[in-house]
């Protein structure tokens, strides 16, 4: 069966070159006589894989030396709790910016550990980002948390907030899609299953001065300093997911790095939004000033055609276009691994479907 264009929000498609390399090395990684998933995480073979992955990521993102890079478990959802456990450092409050579903989940979890000041919130009926001048930040906040891209609604920051407290960002769906000035952040975290690799590993990039003073009772597995001292191996890490992440990092480097990714991702998104905006049959509900490059939701003029659209798209090799259950409609997630040809094919299909049903 031919591979499809998979528009899933996550787990998402991986670069075909990465999958092929992993397949070639499945039974025997570089003459070791075993698969990576069979290796001891303490053995020299896997330690070299882990070190290479971190070094490649540091080169790609320009991560300063005074930042730790951790490869953890628990997903971004686990970090909703780990962040206040580690970053409060004697303070009792933290600022959160609410721009959608994942912001709300982070806020709910943080409330178990600190006083949460929701400094700004998008209106429930408008998919937009509150202007920076409207934010009401607390003067004593330990950090400011925001979600640069809301995967479900397709709302994205195209600017980095300037704040006095350490800035914390859930970059699960935007990391590695464009250059990022890591020095502007106290902490960046991301679930792997969108632009990094398969589900199971979580990336945390945290500034040195923000770790080492956890809340009493913090489990060691959530203690950033303990995990940093153990090279992210206090327990057995998700070794195979870590290995695939390293292959993805190298693949991005081979494509020309994050500048090249940004050029491609911007072009893919512009093509899809142009197709939507140029039609009376499709529409996108997001404020044009904060539309996502990664997750593009859209609705049909007649939602009675939704099931037909999805079925015919599937037959055309375009899969996983159904919108999140909380919002309905369609959603095309076009992460790094989605080739431009996939977006071109989707645009062609949408035009064909409109001609037959509009």
Specify the CATH architecture of the largest domain. 3-Layer(aba) Sandwich
Distance between the termini: 32 Å
Provide mean pLDDT, rounded: 96
CATH topology of the largest domain: Aspartate Aminotransferase, domain 2
Give the CATH class of the largest domain.
Answer: Alpha Beta
Number of separate structural domains:
2
Strand content: 15-25%
Q: Strand order, biggest sheet?
A: 2-10-9-8-5-3-4
Helix content: 25-40%
- Give the name of the CATH superfamily of the largest domain: Type I PLP-dependent aspartate aminotransferase-like (Major domain)
| Main β sheet profile | 7 strands, mixed
What is the topology?
Elements: E1 5-6, H1 16-24, H2 44-61, E2 67-72, H3 75-87, E3 93-98, H4 101-110, E4 115-121, E5 144-146, E6 149-150, E7 155-156, E8 167-170, E9 187-191, E10 202-207, H5 224-229, H6 239-255, H7 257-277, E11 282-283, E12 295-300, H8 306-315, E13 318-319, E14 330-333, H9 340-357
Parallel strand pairs: 1-13, 3-4, 3-5, 5-8, 8-9
Antiparallel strand pairs: 2-10, 6-7, 9-10, 11-12, 12-14
Helix pairs in contact: 1-6, 2-6, 3-4, 6-7, 7-9
Describe it:
The chain is of the alpha/beta class. It folds into 2 domains: about 20-255, Type I PLP-dependent aspartate aminotransferase-like (Major domain) (Aspartate Aminotransferase, domain 2), CATH 3.40.640.10; about 255-355, Alpha-Beta Complex (Aspartate Aminotransferase, domain 1), CATH 3.90.1150. Helices cover about 35% and strands about 15% of the residues. It is built from 9 helices and 14 strands. The chain has helices at about 15-25, 45-60, 75-85, 100-110, 225-230, 240-255, 255-275, 305-315, 340-355, and strands at about 5, 65-70, 95-100, 115-120, 145, 150, 155, 165-170, 185-190, 200-205, 280-285, 295-300, 320, 330-335. The strands form 4 sheets. A 7-stranded mixed sheet has the order 2-10-9-8-5-3-4. Strand 6 (about 150) and strand 7 (about 155) form a beta hairpin. The longest helix is centred in the last third of the chain and has 21 residues, at about 255-275. The radius of gyration is 21 Å and the shape is globular.
């Amino acid at each position: 069966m031919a591979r499809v264009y998979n528009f899933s929000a996550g787990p998402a498609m991986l670069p075909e070159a990465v999958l092929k390399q992993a397949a070639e090395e499945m039974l025997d990684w570089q003459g070791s006589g075993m698969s990576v998933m069979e290796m001891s995480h303490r053995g020299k073979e896997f330690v070299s894989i882990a070190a290479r992955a971190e070094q490649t990521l540091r080169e790609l993102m320009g991560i300063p030396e005074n930042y730790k890079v951790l490869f953890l478990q628990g997903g971004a959802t686990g970090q909703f709790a780990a962040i206040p456990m580690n970053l409060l450092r004697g303070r009792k409050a933290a600022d959160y910016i609410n721009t959608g579903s994942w912001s709300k989940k982070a806020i709910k979890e943080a409330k178990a550990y600190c006083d949460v000041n929701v400094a700004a919130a998008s209106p429930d009926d408008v998919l937009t980002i509150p202007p920076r001048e409207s934010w009401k930040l607390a003067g004593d906040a330990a950090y400011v948390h925001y979600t640069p891209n809301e995967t479900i609604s397709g709302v994205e920051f195209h600017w980095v907030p300037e704040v006095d407290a350490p800035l914390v960002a859930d970059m699960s769906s935007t990391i590695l899609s464009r250059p990022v000035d890591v020095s502007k952040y106290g902490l960046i975290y991301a679930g792997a299953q969108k632009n990094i690799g398969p589900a199971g590993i979580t990336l945390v990039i945290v500034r040195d001065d923000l770790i080492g003073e956890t809340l009493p009772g913090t489990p060691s597995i959530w203690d950033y300093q303990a995990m940093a001292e153990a090279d992210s191996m206090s327990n057995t890490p998700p070794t195979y997911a870590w290995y695939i992440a390293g292959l993805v990092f190298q693949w991005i480097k081979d494509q020309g790095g994050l500048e090249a990714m940004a050029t491609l991702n911007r072009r893919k998104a512009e093509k899809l939004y142009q197709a939507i905006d140029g039609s009376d049959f499709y529409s996108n509900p997001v404020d044009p000033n904060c539309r996502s490059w990664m997750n593009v939701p859209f609705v049909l003029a007649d939602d009675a055609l939704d099931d037909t659209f999805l079925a015919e798209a599937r037959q055309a090799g375009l899969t996983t276009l159904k919108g999140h259950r909380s919002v309905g409609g369609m959603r095309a997630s076009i992460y790094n691994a989605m080739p431009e040809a996939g977006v071109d094919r989707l645009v062609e299909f949408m035009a064909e479907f409109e001609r037959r049903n509009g």
